[in-house]
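On clarity, I found the account of how folds are encoded harder to follow than it need be. What matters is that the chain and its backbone geometry are given together, residue for residue. The format is easy to grasp once an entry is in front of the reader. For illustration, here is how one protein appears when written out as sequence plus structure tokens.
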Amino acid sequence: MSTNLEQQARALIRTDNFIDGQWVGAASGQRFAVTDPATGKLIAEVSDSGRVDARAAADAAAVALPAWRATLPGVRAAILRRWHALIMEQSDALAALISLEQGKPLAEAHGEVAYGASYVAWFADEATRIYGDIIPQQHSRKRMTAIKEPIGVVAAITPWNFPLAMIARKIAPALAAGCTVVAKPAEDTPLTAIALVMLAHQAGVPNGVLNLISASRQSTVEAVGEWLDDSRVRKITFTGSTPVGKYLARESANSLKKASLELGGNAPFIVFEDADLDAAVKGLLAAKFRNGGQTCVSPNRVYVQRSVYERFSKELGAKVAELRVGPASDPASQIGPMINVRAVEKISRHVEDAVANGALVLTGAKCLPDLGPHYYAPTVLTNATSEMLLCNEETFGPVVPLFAFDTEQEAIQAANDTPFGLASYFYSQDVRRIDRVSRALETGIVGINEGALASEAAPFGGVKDSGYGREGSKYGLDDYLSIKYMCQGELD
């Protein structure tokens, strides 16, 4: 990363909470460190917020709600479009900031900025398309209609792996629908989210409509707990682990909040013998190694039909061995550091368990201490089995375990043999098989001969323990709206 780019990134850094249009420190005066995962060096110290700060954010959002929900959709859309324009104007600096605090290579960070901004643009348009219905008349003296209204104050809680895109695709539909927002980004990567909120304020989002607090891991339960207890907060939208998602669902039940939960995954990737193997290798590389495997839709289990298993393994292993690992400051880097030591320890534990239980290493399977404590080599393992940890837990790192299968039904059964159901992938050139398998897979998202699934125009979300609700697309706005039925009588 050039010195100029890093300077641009640092120009966007703010370290306080943003509440009711003002930059304010945590009431306690406490702060916590945000560090560069590539070097471990301190980037900044940000506010460590608790209940008092969370309550202040909710107070501001509740006060701002009546005026914002009454704002014409076209006006809300215009503000979102200005926000989108500012994001794109600052795309270089935002990408550099993402790389600095999250570690992903700069080219990927640029992709994330464009991806996150696409949701802002999409929902700017959707703001003007919130339709209701005139219900066909059932009685001569009555008229029945249904309209959609903003649900109210929304609490948005986001993860560290896409610090711009995840919060943009929650805030944008909320604002488009006429909701106000309180937000808390992940403790590892708050700086990008804070910068994004700053740009939203510059675009004209009124005071109190969008509020953000940062909190350390220790303080998060207290801060979010305030929102869970607050009956004025009518919706929780969360992306993160399944245990945390279940906790939020349980705790928000007391006030019957609406919830959108995009949770953990254990994505299968199936390669049938009739697949274009070169395309399958390319698709797997794109799906698996984006952000170093630290994505919720990253393939975690790769099933290859036995007749093509050896050839596919060889081709994949050769490609993975060529991947360049390094910091975002190196333009040649394709895989950056993992987010923290805990992530590396989990990856190492999964690989060690697999090898101890019979897996063979084609490439990788080692930490890279010469680069730093958070680096792990891109890895391919063969002879994987269902008893291994990496089959039953999401690795969230650059590790590809290869499982062999014989029949289509065997592959489907193995793919579905998990409590998770976010994304799945398969490669085949048989049109009848494509129809059968796409219907049989128990996931909210299916990639068919395609490794890159995300789009602002498509509904993103899972089933089973991967959560519920959808983000993006025309369906994504519905999660921020409630339906009101109105019956008018005495018309004759």
In short: The chain has a mean pLDDT of 96. The CA atoms of residues 112 and 165 lie 6 Å apart. The longest strand covers residues 143-150. The radius of gyration is 23 Å.
